[in-house]
Input
Amino acid sequence: MANTIQAIRGMNDILPGVTPRWQFIEGVFRQLMQAYGYNEIRLPIVEKTELFKRSIGEVTDIVEKEMYTFDDRNGDSLTLRPEGTAGCVRACIENGMLHNQTQRLWYVGPMFRHERPQKGRYRQFHQLGVEVFGFEGPDIDAELIMLSARLLKELGLSELVRLEINSLGIAEERQAHRQQLVAYLEQHIEQLDEDSRRRLQSNPLRILDTKNPAMQTLVEQAPRLFDFLGEESRAHFQGVCDYLDSVGIAYQVNHRLVRGLDYYSKTVFEWVTEHLGAQGTVCAGGRFDALIEHLGSKPAPAAGFAVGIERIVALLEERTDIPDVLPHAYLLVAGDSAQRQGLALAEGLRQRIPGLRLQVNCGGGSFKSQMKRADKSGARLALILGEEEVQQQTIGIKDLRTDQPQQAVPQQGIDSILRALIAEAEPAV
Ligand code: ATP
Ligand code: MG
Output
């Protein structure tokens, strides 16, 4: 084993044992996106480094120490995307999707951050992302939150999560707050860790997002940004709260909630859980009205959120009722002529019976070992094609999940048996 090559630390294989859970999550998400009228966008995984520096902000954890940045063969500095918003905005600007129109978009895919790997924190992780452009009012903020609430509900996780919301106001309001925040932090400089001292002048708001337990009291007693918000920002925030009340979504206003990226303004929200230890945020988002102009385009309001799929998968471990997608039937082929006919017989069945999941025994083997494989496949029925069945144009059927004896049926009769089995397994709603 000494010479085998291993995966990169923090970049995980997602093995067949857990992919059903991933498919379940992505399937629910895709359906919801259709239900709310959102369109998929597929984006490159690599972008120019400059894009992330300019959008996420130079003085953030991500840009300062988490990006996978490299020079390509032309000497251009490129970065594996640490999040999806920057690329999405870049694509919308570049393709003229923001001028005099609105967009409701979603994507799914891997993100890359060079963090210290631990439970719920990986170097390649995956997000479901949603972004909307061109909507100014609090209604769309509320729609995004409702959407995320419904997603968590349909995943069966409502009981495990809670919603926190806050407003970060607009740039001028943050500026006024900043002066007092810096003065306060300077008074307590001895309690600041090294990162925070460095950020004191460059990006003090980020200090409030620290994960350092030793700094939590300090942060809790800091001047609140919310107290600096003007009428318009407050009205917007109240609007979001009113909409949430009107649909019965429970939330906690948390005026300490700031987000780790520079581009947020006004509404921010997080879905958090107590069930995953320190990595408790499963979904995070908010409004970022200034980003589009900041990236050089005509200004347009924007908002969005991202869900960390690994953390949802971990929460779903508490649920055992997610069905595996197992074959309906496994076809055993014993003997030369059966082997020759088996694949063709299976193709015919798949052609005629939509939705049929049929696995064929490949690679030969004794009847006994094929039967073992049939059982292990998880299939409900074993279909048996031996020399005798070939001659008599029948097929043997054995229910692998009951004690009923094997039966021989004419080959024409097999379609209706399989159709009935599928209908029984997946009743039409
Ligand atoms: P955290 O506070 O956990 O570091 P963040 O503020 O850096 O999160 P965002 O950039 O807002 O996270 O990403 C949105 C979501 O993506 C997070 O809430 C989390 O569920 C997930 N996420 C972020 N970083 C990682 C990671 N390294 N590994 C797994 N999931 C992650
Ligand atoms: Mg982070």
